[in-house]
Design goal:
homodimer, two-stranded antiparallel ribbon, 9 helices
Chain lengths: 211, 211
């Protein structure tokens, strides 16, 4: 949560950006908050409220200029630039993420990979040589890494996160199933796949009880 | 959101369950809401509030019986049983998920895999033969699949989701970067990896503006 802006608002901003990119491919022009609402599965009032956190966009009765709002949302979300990313953990999840095409196309560029397995250290993925964990303190500053994707076992996650924070990384996408203890100035986004499935089985179980 | 219970509460229930499992391995007995709060990075009052949605647990001054509360949370989250899961999409993300050890150990058992690639159809992952999308309407009911992990490209996601819903699946873990349009009775959990990174770059960018 930043500046008191709820996480759900940030998610919707991402959806609005996707929609604006689609509108632009379809010809651009202007778009009403109602149209953004339909694609974002929300209400026009919510669209206007979400955007109002960040300034005054659009004109009453005329809607938003598609290209202008797209640029503004890119700036707000911080995706009007390249982010240099290190992948810590070159296992199966790490590989799937490394090869995920949308990361690079969205400006998240993997510039370093770390793994503790001696058989992996020194081998290459694409153009990148996999480094050992001992090299973290030199590689991260040298390559000006800002974001870390943490895809190591739970037992190694806290140490790797703390060491990466100590050498200046600014944010962590955490796939390890633990809550990381890092300074509040370093945002962490947790992707816990078991908890996602538990949220599903919770919803199904509880709705069954209501019937 | 089920019965008005916020998603954040469900996440914390998952964390409490993890903590209770740890306490049990460490010997069990009783645990105070303060101890659950520390491991869940929340407050004791929040722990009590979260649990109060689901009944009366623990005794004032004595705390919670670890094993009893663990069993209750498993029932609440619907993880006191096996869930039969189909993986739709046998790409890189699909493979990483299929091999993710925590899924099976938590009771989420993959019983079917689908992919549209003719070169993959008929090949095996573990004990499972990959089926073609045409087989979805027969395989899902035959194997009593309840949950779907959807890891197909955005262009195929809605069709696959709708067809799976039509043959009775109860919930979807969606990795495709679109909002699925399915009946509200079928819960969907979205895992959008680009949006997770955007939430990070948003937080970093906005906190920079505050300084």
């Amino acid at each position: 949560v930043t500046r008191g802006i709820p996480e759900s608002t940030v998610r919707r901003l991402s959806h609005y950006l996707r929609s604006l990119e689609e509108f632009e491919r379809e010809g651009g022009g202007t778009v009403a908050s109602e149209e953004l609402a339909v694609r974002g599965q929300t209400t026009a009032a919510q669209v206007r409220k979400d955007l109002s956190h960040f300034g005054s966009f659009g004109k009453r009765g005329l809607g938003y200029q598609v290209d202008e709002l797209r640029v503004s949302l890119q700036q707000i979300l911080g995706v009007d630039r390249i982010w240099r990313v290190a992948l810590i953990g070159a296992g199966r999840i790490g590989l799937a993420l490394f090869e995920y095409p949308a990361f690079k196309s969205r400006g998240y560029e993997c510039v370093a990979i770390f793994d503790a397995d001696p058989e992996k250290i020194g081998t290459t993925w694409g153009d990148l040589v996999i480094s050992g964990p001992d090299e973290l303190e030199s590689v991260i500053p040298d390559l000006m890494v800002e974001l870390v994707i943490l895809a190591v076992p739970a037992s190694a996650a806290q140490e790797m996160a703390s060491r990466a924070v100590d050498v200046g990384i600014k944010g962590i996408l955490n796939f390890a199933p633990i809550r990381l203890d890092v300074p509040s100035s370093v945002p962490v986004e947790d992707v816990n796949l078991v908890m996602e499935l538990e949220a599903l089985s919770f919803a199904i179980t509880q709705s069954g009880r209501d019937e």
